[in-house]
Amino acid sequence: MTAREETAQNLTGVWNGRYFYPRELAPVSFVATLFETASALTGTTHEPASPATSALRYATLEGRRDGRAVVFVKTYTNGGPNAQPIDYSGRLNGDATEIEGIWRIRGNWSGKFLMVRAPAKAVSVERKAAERV
Description:
Elements: H1 3-9, E1 13-19, E2 28-37, E3 40-48, E4 56-66, E5 69-76, E6 86-92, E7 98-105, E8 110-117, H2 120-132
Antiparallel strand pairs: 1-2, 1-8, 2-3, 3-4, 4-5, 5-6, 6-7, 7-8
């Protein structure tokens, strides 16, 4: 594997995602920042708290990757007293640009999710712009 392929296979980076409810509720978009070290995954997410406000909900992620299998637990940091950890189990596509799978709230419900890696060029452009400020 070349250094470029190895970098592409590492999940570290910004991912745009969307999770879907099993009922007639609107899907929710989120942004995840993942860090992969060996097979361990950590990271954070942010997403709208509700469609009616501009408030955001934040969460931490902890999990692992085994080949193309990706699992992590999302725990809201400002979700309130009723927020429960959410288990995510997905599969990485061949070029490591998408993770698709199922989320589950233990004992409650589940749905599908999709995460797409943000293009590296866009991230580097944003980083350069931020450095200039």
